[in-house]
Design a protein that fits this description.
With 1037 residues, the protein is of the alpha/beta class.
Length: 1037
């Protein structure tokens, strides 16, 4: 094997020449009107700065907030170095630079900043891990200043286009010679400093060119994005393929395994990588909790990060009092209906706020308090875009701005509107936002029109917006701090469950509180509408952030691009072996071996009990329970079960091995997951064990019956273990303890009656009642009956399952314990013996088979014509797109039809509107061909032993945007477009801009295979999108 690093092999210089003939991006020059908007905002000069640590004077600090100067400047420095590294170890471990700095700052650098910049002057890579607003940007700016000083090229990568635009503007004002390269913009691409998205960097690394050969510094902002399940691999591949002579600067939130990451980088590039870490906050934070429906703030964590248990107990009592008085959740009456959260509005879902307008009243109360105490600017974080808009409208009766400030807002607004046509300025969304902005109130979420979102960012940064309602994405990217941060809830729906915020999520958003040089402390206010355990609150605020773990995976795009390189499959395996995933696995091997020894020792201590009869019984019980779970999964599909989840239905709830027993459904509530899809959470009346009043939810304890209570608990549908055919009639009001207890007595009476007669509660039949007709399911369900009969008629069933404390039960428990330990030992052995490399090699082999079957590569792994086309497609499913290119589907369409059909590849949230009045006739057959091709491709992947759900894959290409794109491409106005859908305006624009990127990629793909006629169609398709508000200039460019 060639030992030369494949990352240094680049295509010949002609790659740059080829790029020059590509279809131009939608934006290729700076905008004069955008500059006018920024100038209008800056005419209002303020005496202080909201910069990222760029303030020299220290604020007046109160006694409680003052910390020792040594703590204020503390940092941890570590360095990972190659084994064969030689040099001055003392200087390596204590980097100090005493020369003329590349950039002067009007303030004294903090310890971590000084250490990191000294590392850069040593020409070595560095990972800077620090809290939001700590001043990491200083390090990035210094690396850029060094590049300008030394006449080298520097690349600055960001995870999002919007952040790239913002950073481009910021760096342009600082350094001048700065370019921007995102999917829809290419401005000054030959500049000394180029800002780009990480996807663009990866593409450039695959394709090569002068920029890559000349780059000296690559800055990865927000590198903790590498843990993202879908996109994390892009960061991993970019780091692996970074040129060997380049040095890397990583900026990240605090990471518990930062040194492990640095070790990986060192193993890749064979030069030292430093870690400079600080958990110091320049402005200390105080964390308060507000009981929804109650009054007053409770300090739960002070500025010294001390948890106040006494105040937390008072908070719990306040929530309980509020629940009894207002009928909210916690130990009371759930989250909906008569005593719940008022049914929820719009498409926000999952809010967990109490009774009708109670949540609005609470928000108004807190925001008014913030205004009266001048604790603004304030950011109010919500996890629903609809809620952000509703809350902002509700507090619009408050005015944060002076008449002079309102006039300034109008001036900036009018300047920004010059980017839009007169017709687009009349859009409802554009007109409706102005009164809020004049009052100093803003909204920020991904569904906003981009021009409005950027306008709000500019106004907020200039202190012309003082109350901002935002989703969590506002906590990413540029430093826009506030004095106060408010969380409207402590839980978010993650696609599976409503869960408490992870420490990293909370820290990222809370870090926006406290402006360095202006506030003696930052204030965080958490709104609580249900009791939670003290440990959960403490973990959320003070817990360790999530470690950076690899999400490496192989994609067809990567495989084909690697095969196209000179060394082919060697490069593919090279990437696998050099991945962070493989590195982490190799590091875990010693620990796994120690764990294996411990498990084997524990198993050896357990004496073998019972004979073949017990083993047979346990095997039968497992088979029965596995089949039962499979049946329940199908029954719990919303289309099958929702009509049965009406008020009063008896269901059995089980969470893993924890059996909650029978309960009664009070409400079934729709909520949105992170992807915008609708799922359901059930409010279920259950018997709970002691501690429910303190927020500790455990199943009933038979030995402490007097301390048990009947509560209404939110339950995910996946925890439903059985659905009874029986329903009870519930009281109209379940807020009182007596009302809930009366229902529970009815449940006990019903279950006891059946048990006394030797029967089980009658269950919903999935075939007779739910009308499930799937053949595979029916076979499983029928086998379940036979398994149940075999299990329940087994000689050991009666004694083992009917008598909890029998001698046989004890033997079975011991046998199960030993079996589990042996299974754990076998799994550990398998992990130790089967290298992760083997797993990825198998995956590579399977994917290579798919590529051969579809005609992308030949038997020797040489990339064929279809494969060369697929190498250019990174914005959509490369296999399906090229299949449609080569099977003639695209050829028969006009440019307008082409771009409309391609919109099926754009992921958007679920929409309730899917009319195709104008496009149906032209696109009915192509849409059918798309689905047929998708099914064929999925089937081939399944045959090649890749895990894929065929129907789910086919369904992922939805025609949600087809009519919208077709009408826009044929010239309809945006005002007419938005009437056709319930999608947010920002969602539509983002999808169309991404679609424009796909058109450019397909244009390149056609040029690569010599199909100029189809390339011209894609070019015209892209041009038909590029007009009006959809492609209005960014206010940052």
């Amino acid at each position: 094997r060639d030992t030369t690093s494949p990352t240094t092999r680049m295509p010949p210089p002609s790659a740059d020449a080829a790029m020059a003939h590509e279809l131009p991006t939608a934006h290729s020059s700076v905008s004069a009107t955008s500059a006018a908007t920024r100038d209008a905002a800056k005419r209002r000069k303020v005496n202080d700065d909201d910069g990222d640590g760029d303030v020299d004077a220290q604020p007046p600090v109160s006694d409680v907030a003052r910390t020792p100067s040594s703590a204020r400047t503390s940092c941890v420095h570590e360095v990972a170095m190659p084994r064969d590294w030689t040099g001055d170890l003392a200087a390596l471990h204590d980097p100090v630079f005493r020369g003329t700095p590349a950039k002067e700052y009007p303030f004294t650098l903090d310890a971590f900043q000084a250490t990191a910049t000294a590392v850069l002057e040593r020409n070595e890579s560095v990972l800077v891990a620090a809290h939001t607003s700590a001043g990491k940007t200083v390090v990035a700016e210094y690396a850029i200043a060094m590049a300008f000083r030394d006449k080298q090229r520097v690349i600055y990568t960001s995870p999002l286009k919007a952040l790239s635009n913002q950073k481009f503007r910021e760096l342009s004002e600082e350094f001048g010679d700065v370019g921007l390269m995102t999917g829809d913009a290419s401005i000054n691409p030959n500049s000394t400093c180029i800002v780009m998205t990480t996807e663009v960097l990866r593409s450039m690394l695959y394709r090569g060119g002068d920029v890559i050969r000349e780059v000296k510094w690559i800055i990865f902002d927000e590198v903790h994005y590498m843990r993202d399940r879908e996109r994390g691999v892009v960061w991993e591949e970019s780091i692996i393929f970074a040129p060997k002579d380049a040095r890397l600067v990583f900026l990240s939130a605090t990471l518990p395994n930062a040194f492990e990451f640095a070790q990986w980088v060192t193993s890749l590039h064979n030069h030292p990588c430093h870690v400079v870490y600080t958990d110091h906050r320049p402005t200390p934070l105080q964390h308060y909790a507000f009981p929804k429906g109650g009054s007053g703030l409770h300090l739960v964590v002070n500025e010294r990060s001390e948890f106040r248990s006494d105040n937390f107990a008072r908070l719990q009592q306040a929530i309980a009092d509020g629940a009894e008085k207002a009928g909210t959740s916690g130990g009371g009456s759930g989250r909906g209906g008569g005593g719940g959260r008022g049914g929820g509005r719009g498409r926000g879902g999952g809010r967990g706020r109490g009774g009708g307008s109670q949540g609005d009243a609470d928000i108004l109360r807190i925001v008014r308090m913030v205004k009266e105490k001048t604790f603004f600017p304030v950011i109010v974080f919500s996890f629903s875009r609809r809620e952000c808009e509703e809350y902002a409208k509700f507090v619009s009766k408050l005015n944060f701005n002076t008449p002079e400030e309102s006039e300034q807002v109008r001036e900036v607004y009018n300047a920004a509107m010059l980017n839009l046509s007169e017709e687009d300025r009349e859009l409802t969304a554009v007109q409706a936002i102005l009164p809020l902005l004049e009052a100093g109130i803003g909204i920020h979420h991904s569904g906003l029109l981009p021009v409005l979102k950027e306008l709000i960012e500019i106004l907020f940064s200039e202190s012309l917006i003082k109350c901002l309602f935002a989703t969590e994405t506002f906590a990413m990217g540029l430093n826009m701090p506030a004095r106060t941060v408010i969380f409207t809830q402590v839980k978010k729906f993650d696609g599976t469950d409503m869960r408490v915020l992870a420490p990293g999520e909370y820290t990222q958003m809370a870090g926006r509180a406290g402006r360095r040089g202006k506030d003696d402390r930052g204030i965080c206010i958490v709104m609580c509408d249900e009791r939670m355990e003290e440990l959960a609150m403490k973990e959320m605020i003070l817990g360790q952030p999530q470690p950076l773990n690899s999400e490496f995976k192989l994609s067809y795009y990567s495989i084909l691009n690697l095969l196209k390189r000179a060394t082919g499959t060697i490069d593919a395996e090279y990437v696998i072996s050099r991945s962070f995933h493989q590195f982490q696995h190799a590091k875990q091997l010693p620990d796994m071996k120690v764990k294996l020894a411990e498990v084997e020792e524990q198993a050896a201590k357990i004496k073998a009990v019972g004979g073949e009869e017990i083993q047979e019984y346990i095997k039968l019980r497992r088979e029965y329970r596995d089949a039962e779970k499979s049946v329940m999964r199908a029954m719990l599909e919303p289309s099958n079960c929702l009509r049965f989840f009406s008020s009063g239905r008896l269901i059995r709830v089980r969470d893993g091995d924890t059996n909650w027993g029978w309960g009664v459904i009070v409400h079934a509530l729709p909520v949105k997951d992170a992807k915008g899809s609708t799922t359901h959470v059930l409010d279920v009346l259950l018997r709970c064990g002691p501690g429910a009043a303190q927020g500790k939810l455990v199943p009933v304890n038979d030995e402490a019956d007097k301390d048990n209570s009947t509560e209404i608990v939110p339950v995910g549908m996946h925890l439903v273990d059985a659905i009874s055919a029986m329903r009870l009639t519930l009281p109209d009001d379940l807020r009182t303890t007596d009302a809930r207890q009366s229902v529970w007595l009815a449940v006990e009476a019903v279950t006891k009656k059946f048990i006394d007669n030797g029967q089980e509660l009658p269950l919903i039949d999935p075939i007779a009642d739910m009308k499930i007709t799937d053949v595979k399911f029916i076979n499983t369900y029928r086998s379940l009956g036979a398994l149940r009969e075999a299990f329940q008629t087994h000689a050991l069933y009666s004694e083992a399952d009917a008598r909890k404390n029998s001698a046989l039960t004890a033997k079975i428990d011991v046998f199960e314990q030993k079996s589990q330990l042996l299974a754990q030992a076998a799994e550990l052995k398998s992990k130790i013996q089967s290298n992760e490399l083997t797993k990825f090699r198998d995956d590579l082999k399977s994917r290579s088979k798919v590529l051969k079957k579809l005609g992308h590569i030949d038997a020797d792994g040489v990339v064929l014509t279809k494969g060369r086309a697929a190498c250019e497609v990174d914005t959509a499913d490369e296999l399906l797109v090229t299949e449609l290119m080569f099977n003639g589907v695209f050829q028969g369409l006009t440019p307008h039809e082409l771009v409309a059909l391609a919109s099926c590849f754009m992921p958007v949230e679920k929409s309730n509107t899917s009319s195709m009045n104008k496009s149906a006739k032209a696109l009915a057959k192509p849409l059918k061909a798309l689905q047929d091709s998708a099914r064929e491709i999925a089937q081939i992947q399944l045959e090649c032993k890749l895990e894929i759900d065929v129907e789910e894959f086919v369904e992922s290409f939805k025609p949600t945007m087809v009519e919208i794109v077709y009408c826009w491409a044929t010239g309809e106005s945006f005002a007419e477009i938005v009437k056709k859908t319930d999608l947010f305006e920002g969602t539509i624009i983002r999808a169309m801009r991404r679609l424009d990127e796909l058109m450019m990629e397909l244009h390149r793909a056609c040029i690569a295979v010599g199909d100029t006629e189809l390339a011209e169609k894609f070019e015209k398709g892209a041009e038909s999108l590029r007009h009006g508000i959809v492609f209005a200039d960014s206010l940052y460019t």
